Amino acid sequence: MIGSKGISRRGLLKTGAAAAGVSLFNINHAWSQDVTYDGGVFDAGGATLNVAEWGGYWQETQNRLLLDKFQKDFNCRIQYDSTFPWFPKFVANGPEDPPIAIANWNLPEMYKTAAAGDYFVDVEEIRANVPNVAKLWDFASLGGTGVTWAFSRYCYVYRTDAGPAPTSFKDFWKEEYAGRRGTYITSNTLQMDFFLGSCATFGESETDFDAGYEAMRAAMPMKISDFTGNMATLVERGEVAIAVQSDAEALLQKEKGVPVDLYYWDEYKGILTQTKTISKYADPMSKRLAFALLNRTLEAEYQTAFANEFWMRPSNRDAVIPEKMAALGVVNSADATDGLHIPDWQAYLDEEIDIVETVNEIFAS
Amino acid sequence: MGDTSPIPLTFRLVSGVALVILLTPVLIVVLSGLNSGEYLTFPPQGLSLKWVAGFFTSPIFLPAFLFSFGLATVTTIISTILGTMAAIFLTRSRSRAREVLRGLFILPVVLPGVVLGLALYVFFAWTKLGLAGSFPGLLIGHVLVTMPFVIATVTASLVDFDLSVEDAARSLGATPLQAFTKVTLPIIQPGISAGTIFAFIVSFGQFELTLFLATPDMQPLPIAMYTSLRYAFEPTAAAAGIFAICLVTISTLVTSRLVNLKKLLRRR
Amino acid sequence: MAELALSEVHGRRTGGRRLRPTLWWLVTPAILFFVLFFLIPIASLFAISFDKGAQGVITFQGNLTLDNFARIFTRSLYYEAVWRSVWLGATVSVLCLIIGYPLAFVIARTLRPGAALLLTILVLASMQLDMVIRLYGMMVLMGDNGLINTALMKVGLISAPLPLMYNSFGVIVGLVQVTLPFMILSLVGAIKSINPSLEEAARSLGSTRWHAMRTVTWPLSLPGVYAGTLLVFALAISSYVVPALMGGWKVVTLPIHIYQQIAEVGRWQFGAAIGVVLFGTSLLAMAVYILALRRQAGGRM
Q: Which structural domains are found in chain B, ordered by start?
């Protein structure tokens, strides 16, 4: 995946340089390299930092755990944009005029944006300027562009009052779940991963898309949901007996007292990640602040506190798993992260047009 | 009232059906919002005001509510003025162009908000006037999608307006403005108030358009709700609705009292 | 010139005292606003629908092609959605009119002011809930384990849940719930502006109530019918949230495709092309409707 990424990036650099004129491109490039950060606190003199992250309760939590203090410490003002999607916003403004200095993503959208132009600082530059990257599990910085600071595992959430518990990935297709199994629309990362998991389990590899289509067909009739919150409600109301879900969401539901439990996919250990990118051509002060904010996001204490709110796992090796998660068997160890797998998003995105149309047709049938 | 009642029985029955369709889901949500349990559920596990209280203490939802309220108010004022003026033109001018204009003015409603939002965002980014992600930019989008409602309802109430009434006022010495405010305005007032209500509600609940145009920092309520509901169906969203329902009930009551009071005073 | 002559004729007809002054200043601000912030941005976006599809490109490139449109009209996934959207919009408009007219009439004509006030508040209250959360209420009511199905099964009328949601029926009910207030409030204004003495006159001349309704009230309320149906149609045909949540992805409409392509997949050329098709289809449907209505109303529209 990193390989294919490198190729497409080189191609883009070539066309970008040709289009913009080599000298101009190089000037910007050199200018963007000037910024360095060493992990310390500095005075930003009231500068503004444009941040893009999810809204609602998420925003409330980020303010409380991270951003309020950050603004005080660095004497800066954070503009928080929670109106996704970020992809069109980046593209409409072009790489050299980024509306957002540091953005939080689900990977498919991030790769799509990265493939559309020279938008983000690469991982090497981040590693050089964000000391805490050294404390992360390896998978967290393997993506080429962004750095993953939290993740959750995929699972099935199932109602404990709806018959025997599932014991394998393929149990989702059992006859008794007909019309009572749930997944998401094609643009939801959960469905993307479920699809790739089906390709891997029923076919030869996660890119064996024909096997994936066959599996989707076999799973009909199925309840299709737009987003996670809606699916959680379908499960809570008993409309759905088993559903694709991230463990963060499923554990949260279990904590609230809904009669559900989780089956972790052991056959295909894809993960749902929260990943941050820094815009390459953000103005120097923003960029420096972005490095600093990313550094704080990667601190163990913050990640523990965040896990306690959202049930997401930390990517920092030293972060302590909150008690309530530990009680349900979540651990932060080399073993637990072993075998975790970031899906081949590039391969998926290359075929996305066909996948979306074919799966839409299957769902509508 | 028997036969002297102006309303046929069939109409009463169908009205009942309409009310059931309108209100049952609302009732369910209101009861779920008064739930004392941990998540949105029906039937509620017990009644409490804790989620309503949660709404008022939330650092996200209450500011979002106030922001949306302010945005909708400004939007409604601009839309009502521009829209009413346009509607007067549409009903009184004999120009051929008015048919084309009439079509033009309803177009923003036909397009899904996401199309209009993207078009405006790209346009704002391209013109580099600083409108992208700014309050004026957001306001422009909202005026665009609310004005069709004002124009449609005001036009409807003006079509049958008898111009001779206004002319009579003029012949008795009223200026055009006096004739309009004293004679025309009171007659078309139901149309205008329907228009303002639509404009306010459409702006207040606007989600897709706002996705691309919203200003960072200040989050309109529908966005705050959707981004929260994406993860979990929180009763806070229902609580916000309960608050809005109380607000609209009180304001309608107060307005009608004021109108009655005015009428009473005038009669004396 | 023609306009001047016409307005003169008109002026004479309505009293003949004066020439109507030009009215263009009334509409100029709205026109400028629409041209600048609607026509230009939308035209620029629609222009890219004629561009060759390219990921991550949002501006017009000039690689002219009709591929995007060819794709829409050769794949049943898309062209069926065109028809489905129009059909849903029309059905919802008609249903809203049938269900909404009586309630609007009651609000406009009730002799007890308290009742009108209460009904108005109820209609307004039904519009105050956020769409997503309101559809949660619909799900509680109409889901497989919803109140209706549970009640019917308990009574023993049915043995398996009725499919009330995740199909066209669910989408129609959802859309009616959401758009009905717009119909009712459009009609209330129109009915209120009819002088009740006209109906009374008709009845005192021996018309039955229904006859007076059909020959006096209904024709005079047609401007409101026209406004209400058009607004409801436009709202219904462009709705994303209702078909997405109530249709369970079985009722895929054009806005769903548009939303997916624009906000999620990021194929803007294709998304814009679907937008053009939706736009064109809606305009055509509304033009047909307006022409038909005008014939019936004898030029009063």
A: 61-218 (1.10.3720.10)
3-state secondary structure (DSSP) of residue A182: strand
Nearest Cα to Cα of residue A5 among A95, A115, A104, A122? A115
Asked if residue A314 has a cis previous peptide bond (ω within 30° of 0), the answer is no
What spatial distance separates the first Cα and last Cα of chain A, rounded to whole Å?
Answer: 34
CA–CA distance, B159 with B181 (Å, rounded to integer): 17
Cβ distance B60 to A79 less than 8 Å, yes or no, reads: no
Q: Residues 126 to 185 of C: which have CB under 8 A from any B CB?
A: 126-138, 140-141, 147, 173, 176-177, 180-182, 184-185
At C59-93, the pLDDT tens digits run 888 889 999 999 999 999 999 999 999 999 999 99
Minimal CA separation from C279 to chain B, in Å: 6
- Strands A242-246 and A260-264 turn out to be unpaired
- Angle subtended by helix axes C113-125 and C168-192, to nearest 10: 140
* Cβ C180 vs Cβ C99: under 8 Å: yes
**Does pTM top 0.95 for this prediction?**
no
Residue numbers in A near B238 (CB within 8 A): none
- Taking an 8 Å cut-off on Cβ atoms, the answer to whether B216 and A236 are in contact is no
Rounded to whole angstroms, how far apart are CA atoms A88 and A99? Answer: 11
The CATH number assigned to the domain with range C76-297 reads 1.10.3720.10
Choose among A92, A187, A364: nearest Cβ to C250.
Answer: A364
Per-residue pLDDT of chain B (268 residues; tens, 9 = 90+): 344 566 788 999 999 999 999 999 999 999 988 888 777 778 888 888 888 888 888 888 888 899 999 999 999 999 999 999 999 888 888 777 877 888 889 889 888 888 999 999 999 988 888 888 889 999 999 999 999 999 988 888 887 677 777 888 888 888 888 888 888 888 788 788 888 988 998 999 888 888 888 888 778 888 888 877 776 677 888 888 888 889 888 888 887 777 776 766 665 4
Taking CB atoms and an 8 Å limit, are C265 and A353 in contact across chains?
A: yes
Domains of chain A: 2-150+272-332 (3.40.190.10), 154-271+345-364 (3.40.190.10)
Determine whether the interchain pair A226/C245 forms a contact, defined as Cβ–Cβ distance below 8 Å: yes
Domain residues of chain C, as ranges? 23-65, 76-297
**CA–CA gap between residue B142 and residue B222 (Å, rounded):** 13
Name the closest residue on chain A to residue C53, using Cα atoms.
A353
Instruction: Please report where in the chains the tokens 């736009």 appear, as a residue.
Output: C279
Q: Counting one residue from A and one from C, how many pairs have CB atoms under 8 Å apart?
A: 78
Contact list, C146 vs chain A (CB under 8 Å) = 237
How would you class B7 by CB atoms within 10 Å of its CB: exposed for 0-12, middle for 13-18, buried for 19 or more? Answer: middle
